[in-house]
């Protein structure tokens, strides 16, 4: 019986530590890109004008790579421009699925797919941010998101 | 692990078999409460951090209500496990001849943990599938937190049982214990409206840690990494209360 208890406790510990193990790249986007190539669990913060979006790659699941976005902070400018929406959006996330077929091509990585996600919201993403974007916020957020992610950090 | 753990587990399983109607009641009650809450809390929320998400009252407070249900039931489940079996009417002293106190403690805990695991799954099925509360999170972290809240409830119930002098005292302590946790949970007074020091205490209370984590997982859709610090705090509470119960139970041997 003690053996079974030890196994159960070990499984519990593995579950807890396994869930938590995500490489933190901080603001080092090169580190994030290396992990993104293989859809390995990693996270990075994209900071621009005090807007802070955390992108997390959560690994493969069935036939897609799971990527999530969390709005950690919204800069002063945006907050002044959209005070109510900013208050609601902080701390919220969006979880997206990137098609696994691209991982079969060695020269391609998920970065390109991640930057194209705003065009694929309806099909690939879910979460409170997506639901917030159903309203007039949609255009604003997509444009802000896309420009910051592609222009500043990737190219 | 400790002397007589297997024996203690068997004893507890036998006891659970005898209490099967009462245990069945504990399993069904959460489902009934969730159903009542689901049909009554239908108002749409248009204020606070979750405005514009078209949430119902049921969605907004689901994590609080589920946590409270679990705490109430698990503490109740355990509160008589030691004090109810003490002399002159109980068999605890006789059982402790062959089983160490630590073995007895963990025997009771592990046996009930299996029942509680089942209960957590039932609450998840009723709360997020049959009467679906809004959920952007994945099931494993949610189940893990429901389970940790249940574990905290079990250990608290067992510790109250050890500290109580008689059944009446144990039963009296449960509502006070749960009500204090409830008042600090942010359900009645929002955490950000509490005065600084009180807020600090409230944010670190076990029920608050559990229900706030569940809310972040389900409504904010955050990943496990965003709530793991709260999980460690909750595990620390579980550790401290376990230790307090075990020390008191061990000290009784020398009386």
Looking at this protein, list some descriptive labels:
heterodimer, A: 155 residues, alpha+beta, six-stranded mixed β-sheet, 8 helices, 25% strand, B: 255 residues, mainly alpha, 10 helices, 72% helix
Structural class of chain A: alpha+beta
Q: Note the total helix count of chain B.
A: 10
Q: What kind of oligomer do you see?
A: heterodimer
Helices and strands of chain B, in order, run as HHHHHHHHHH
**Strand segment tally of chain A:** 6
Biggest beta sheet summary of chain B: none
Shape assignment of chain A = globular
Task: Provide a descriptive summary of the structure in words.
The complex is a heterodimer of chains A (155) and B (255). Chain A is of the alpha+beta class. In chain A, 48% of the residues lie in helices and 25% in strands. Chain A has eight helices and six strands; from the N terminus they run H-E-H-E-E-E-H-H-E-H-H-E-H-H. In chain A, strands 1-2-3-4-5-6 form a six-stranded mixed sheet. The longest helix of chain A is centred in the N-terminal third of the chain and has 19 residues, at 2-20. Chain A starts with a helix and ends with a helix. Chain B is mainly α and 255 residues long. Chain B contains ten helices and no strands. The longest helix of chain B is centred in the middle third of the chain and has 30 residues, at 101-130. Chain B is globular. The two termini of chain B are 25 Å apart. In chain B, 46% of the residues are buried. The mean pLDDT of chain B is 89. The A-B interface holds A 1-2, 5-6, 15-16, 19-20, 22, 43, 56, 58, 68, 70, 84-85, 87-88, 91-95, 126-129, 131-132, 135 and B 1, 5-6, 9, 49-54, 110, 136, 140-141, 144, 216, 219-226, 228, 231.
């Amino acid at each position: 019986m003690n053996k079974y208890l030890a196994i159960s406790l070990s499984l519990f510990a593995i579950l807890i530590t396994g869930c938590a193990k995500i490489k933190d790249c901080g603001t080092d986007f090169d580190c994030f890109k290396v992990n993104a190539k293989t859809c390995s669990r990693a996270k990075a913060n994209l900071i621009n004008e005090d807007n802070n979006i955390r992108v997390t790659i959560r690994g493969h699941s069935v036939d897609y790579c799971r990527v999530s976005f969390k709005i950690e902070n919204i800069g002063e400018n945006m907050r002044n421009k959209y005070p109510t929406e900013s208050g609601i959006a902080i701390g919220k996330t969006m979880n997206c699925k990137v098609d696994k077929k691209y991982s079969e091509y060695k020269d391609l990585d998920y970065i390109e797919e991640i930057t194209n996600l705003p065009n694929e919201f309806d099909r690939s993403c879910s979460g409170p941010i997506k639901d917030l974007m159903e309203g007039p916020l949609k255009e604003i957020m997509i444009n802000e998101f896309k420009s910051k992610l592609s222009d500043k950090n990737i190219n | 692990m400790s002397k007589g753990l297997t024996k203690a587990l068997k004893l507890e399983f036998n006891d659970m078999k005898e209490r099967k109607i009462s245990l069945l009641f504990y399993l069904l009650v959460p489902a009934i409460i969730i159903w009542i809450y689901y049909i009554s809390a239908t108002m749409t929320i248009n204020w606070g951090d979750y405005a514009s998400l078209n949430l119902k009252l049921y969605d907004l407070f689901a994590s609080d209500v589920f946590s409270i249900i679990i705490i109430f039931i698990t503490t109740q489940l355990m509160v008589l496990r030691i004090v109810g079996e003490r002399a002159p009417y109980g068999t605890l002293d006789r059982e402790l001849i062959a089983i160490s106190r630590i073995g007895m403690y963990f025997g009771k805990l592990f046996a009930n943990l299996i029942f509680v695991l089942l209960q957590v799954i039932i609450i998840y099925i009723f709360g997020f599938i049959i009467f679906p509360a809004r959920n952007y999170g994945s099931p494993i972290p949610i189940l893990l937190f429901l389970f940790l809240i249940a574990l905290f409830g079990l250990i608290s119930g067992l510790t109250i049982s050890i500290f109580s002098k008689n059944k009446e005292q144990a039963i009296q302590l449960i509502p006070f214990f749960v009500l204090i946790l409830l008042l600090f949970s942010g359900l009645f007074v929002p955490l950000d409206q509490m005065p600084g020091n009180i807020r600090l205490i409230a944010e670190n209370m076990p029920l608050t840690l559990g229900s706030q984590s569940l809310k972040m997982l389900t409504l904010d859709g955050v990943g496990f990494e965003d709530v793991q610090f709260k999980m460690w705090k909750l595990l620390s509470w579980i550790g401290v209360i376990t230790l307090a119960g075990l020390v008191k139970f061990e000290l009784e041997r020398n009386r």
